[in-house]
Amino acid sequence: MNNKFIEKNFFIFGVVIITAAVIILSGGIILGKFQQYSNWKTYTHNGVEFSIKYPPLWKLNDMSNDSGSLKSILFIGKEGTVEISYGFGFGGACPQCYKKMKVGSEQFNVCDSIAGGVESWSMDEQFEDYGIGILATANNPYSSNRNTILEILSTFKFKK
Fold first, then answer.
1. The domain spanning residue 109 has which CATH number?
2. In the chain, which residues have pLDDT < 50?
3. What is the C-alpha to C-alpha distance for residues 45 and 132, in angstroms, rounded to an integer?
4. Domain check: are 47 and 88 in the same one?
């Protein structure tokens, strides 16, 4: 056999193996994400028309029936908290300057900070007839709890 034939077939074989490995690994990552969320609970608010997923061991404190101009839903876990508020009265200053952050299906102005071993993200957006705010915190050690909080935020979406 000729060396060029062997080199060409070896190259093709290598490309096929690498391609198969990438497909298997990426499928595993996608499957892993699906499996991760498959046992998560989903909170859906029909009035404001949003939903968010949260881990099964987290607790939900729905304060949306409280009186006042702001209503809240609080999700609490050992990794931290996520509080979603809606109504009127949002806003404030961010000493570090606001940054744009994609939270689920939406872009929010976000103020993030780290203090006392806790990392927090504060965000709000005003719409025509109401505002929505999200305050999320990653408990100490925030570096290991941050991913869970960001995964929860990544599932937020409006039902449009």
1. 3.40.1000.10
2. 8-17, 19-35
3. 12
4. yes
